[in-house]
Amino acid sequence: MNICKPLAVCGRWFVNKTTPQRLSKSLWTKFQTNFGVYDVVDHLGTVSDPRTVPEYVTLPSYAKTGVVVDEPDQNCPPEIQNKGQIEMLRQSCKFAKFVLDSAKAQLKVGATTDDVDRFVHDLVIDNNAYPSPLNYNGFKKSVCTSINNVVCHGVPDDRPLLNGDLISVDVSVYLNGFHGDCAATYCVGEVDDYGKKLMSVAEQSMYKGIEACGPGKGFSDIGRAIELYARQHGHNVVSSITGHGIGTYFHGPPVIFHSTLHSYPGIMKPGMVFTVEPVISQGGSDVEILEDGWTIVTADDSRGAQFEHTILITDHGYDILTV
């Protein structure tokens, strides 16, 4: 999960200040073009109250106030994690992937995304961890669930999942003082061939970006590899959504751009840990924000899909931590 902020700071944050707001058109209308057949989400459902966290759970600094004060400045160099920190990150990332994999079984026709949020929250808490999105800059839920044309920061609500939906689930956890972050896109019921192709292109685009990682390689190589693969297969990168460094903080440098529209200077070094998490769309790369200030949708109502791993740069290449 990443948070939108102005002027190209990290973590799925926008690179300009002018992302337009969208006027709601109708409630989950059917959309039929060369993008396929699916329901467009342009109306926000009812969001339940934030779920409670027991006192015995170790909290990140923002858990009670919603104010994030301990993340490194984006002008700082990316942190080099030591062996002890890397081991803690392995544990938090492995647990995040376990939660994500477990949540897949909840994605059934008729279930609500609030049901998914309840499942994720309870599973995280039951393992003495904290769901990182909860109250991060005021985010009200414990996971992000983004359906069809919602490309990220979908807030779980009372909308039922429909046959043919694509849903991206973004799980982040705070375990023993370190965050772990991963995401994947899933089919609900029977999804059309256009949607299945989008999912395949999105997942392979992520892996192309990961394969571009290694010591001495430029951060810009990641976006170049992702963009090339997506365009070769008739899709586009939503360039305003970025990856981020991660550790005891949820988001920090480096900023991982997933296209060539922007670039982050410098090279990767052993011990750096960051996410690669491109959002790939069937249509254009422009996005808008719904009235809750969180839900990000494509401007042309095309579907998006996202896959995410947290990776470690090693002496000889990279290691995927969210496995």
UniProtKB/TrEMBL annotation:
UniProt keyword Hydrolase, yes or no: yes
Cross-referenced InterPro entries: Creatinase/aminopeptidase-like, Pept_M24, Pept_M24_MAP, Pept_M24A_MAP1
Record's keyword annotation contains Hydrolase: yes
UniProt xrefs under SUPFAM superfamilies: Creatinase/aminopeptidase (SSF55920)
GO function term, MF aspect, one: initiator methionyl aminopeptidase activity
Cofactor(s) needed by this chain: Co(2+); Zn(2+); Mn(2+); Fe(2+)
Annotated binding of a divalent metal cation 2, by residue: D181, H244, E277, E308
Domain of life assignment: Eukaryota
GO biological process terms held by the UniProt record: proteolysis
EC number(s) stated in the UniProt entry for this protein: 3.4.11.18
Reactions mediated catalytically: Release of N-terminal amino acids, preferentially methionine, from peptides and arylamides
Cofactor notes: Binds 2 divalent metal cations per subunit. Has a high-affinity and a low affinity metal-binding site. The true nature of the physiological cofactor is under debate. The enzyme is active with cobalt, zinc, manganese or divalent iron ions. Most likely, methionine aminopeptidases function as mononuclear Fe(2+)-metalloproteases under physiological conditions, and the catalytically relevant metal-binding site has been assigned to the histidine-containing high-affinity site.
Positions of substrate binding: H153, H251
Entry binding sites for a divalent metal cation 1: D170, D181, E308
Keywords on record: Aminopeptidase, Hydrolase, Metal-binding, Protease
Domain Peptidase M24: 87-315
HAMAP family linked: MetAP_1
Function: Cotranslationally removes the N-terminal methionine from nascent proteins. The N-terminal methionine is often cleaved when the second residue in the primary sequence is small and uncharged (Met-Ala-, Cys, Gly, Pro, Ser, Thr, or Val).
Family, per entry: Belongs to the peptidase M24A family. Methionine aminopeptidase type 1 subfamily.
Protein name as catalogued: Methionine aminopeptidase
Source organism of this protein record: Macrosiphum euphorbiae (potato aphid)
